[in-house]
Write a structure and sequence with these properties.
Blueprint: E1 2-6, H1 10-22, E2 26-29, H2 32-38, E3 46-49, H3 61-71, E4 76-80, H4 90-93, E5 97-100, H5 105-118
Parallel strand pairs: 1-2, 1-3, 3-4, 4-5
Length: 119
Amino acid sequence: MRVLLTEDDPVLAGVLADFLREEGHLVTCVDMRQAGCLAHWTGWDACILDPGGDSFFELRPSEAAELRHLAAHLPVVVTTGRAWAQRADPARLGVRAILSKPFDLDELGQILETLARQA
């Protein structure tokens, strides 16, 4: 799969990119703005992103809208250490899954395997 990876922690971005490449995926690391632009192009199979944001406890409406917009163009898996992830509904945001940090890399791998089978 061709995967866009958006993670603002450079160490974690490296770990995730290495894992995804070992699993056979082609990975391009981008920021949130770049992910939004590239999502319109064909050829991307999934986007794994940490949406960041200003609030630990809530996902702001503008941030949720940005996620829904991105997810309208390709499957999105959200990874975040923010508290709102515990109660967020992936379907309501239009994303395939929300993984709370720290998460098991194998769980991320299983989600991508499912996406590949559905493609």
